[in-house]
Specification:
elongated; two-stranded antiparallel ribbon; 5-stranded mixed beta sheet; alpha+beta
């Protein structure tokens, strides 16, 4: 049975999925890549949305940067400049050259995918989740409001190569996730096959549960795409996959597994 027909069977006729045990390894790898590609879609869409939000918020922050200059390794604000914190959905911009806020205090304000950009007494501090960066003002000698604004706006340009690399990284993580999921499905599938006295080889079970996982993978990926993440999603995927696997086992006799 060809991959396309097995794909159709995985959506409406799970009893036929037992035929997947005879599919060649090369085609199984191809189908595995296909499912991991589906898993990548929600995170890819969400990443693009984050980039879009960052571009819009960066333009908003750039309009609120006060006048300042960096001279002799120090930040020199304009005479009437006041400290403030400006927050958007994706960026928290802090202007506090008087030293009343420390980088650790900035980190406490950062959550999720929010980026912190701070002009503090000690230097420029970028609070990036899991990877904070600090630049001393001696490294930024000569910078002023205009050049800093250019840097902020420059971060808004997203190179197509960066988008491709982001997708590849997300896809690799989806491959690993799909590998772990399918191993889990296979372990439970072997248990069910043993209980029903229709044991298959590990590799055969791997192939069948891979196709049996298609419908729950597509269904929950669709929910995740709309930012809906049900409780016990993994358990539900496991239950549906193993049930479809069980239905496919019922179509064979004991002698067929020998």
């Amino acid at each position: 049975m060809q991959l396309f027909h097995l794909f159709k069977a995985s959506l409406s006729q799970p009893e036929q999925l037992i035929q997947a045990r005879n599919v060649k390894t090369g085609k199984i790898v191809l189908y595995f890549i296909f499912l991991s590609f589906i898993l990548t879609i929600p995170s890819w869409v969400q990443t693009n949305q984050l980039l879009t939000d960052f571009i819009q918020d960066g333009q908003e922050v750039a309009q609120n940067i006060p006048d300042f200059e960096i001279e002799n390794g120090q930040i020199v604000p304009e005479e009437n400049a006041e400290s403030f914190i400006y927050q958007t959905d994706s960026i928290i911009f802090t202007f506090e050259p008087s030293g009343r806020i420390t980088p650790s205090e900035i980190d406490k304000r950062i959550s999720g995918s929010t980026l912190g950009i701070s002009l503090l007494e000690q230097g420029l501090y970028l609070s990036i989740p899991l990877y904070p960066i600090q630049f001393s003002y001696s490294q930024l000698e000569g910078m002023n409001q205009d050049t800093f604004k250019d840097v902020i706006l420059g971060l808004q340009s997203v190179n197509p190569i960066v988008l491709v690399m982001t997708f590849v990284l997300l896809w690799i993580s989806s491959l690993i996730l799909a590998l772990v999921y399918n191993f889990l499905y296979t372990v439970f599938g072997n248990l069910v096959a043993t209980i029903t006295k229709k044991p298959l080889r590990f590799g055969e079970t791997w192939k069948v549960v891979l196709f049996a996982s298609t419908l729950p993978t597509i269904f929950f990926t669709g929910l995740n795409l709309f930012n809906i993440h049900p409780l016990f999603q993994l358990e539900a995927q496991l239950g549906i996959t193993i049930y479809f696997y069980y239905l496919s086992l019922k179509t064979i006799s004991k002698k067929d597994t020998l």
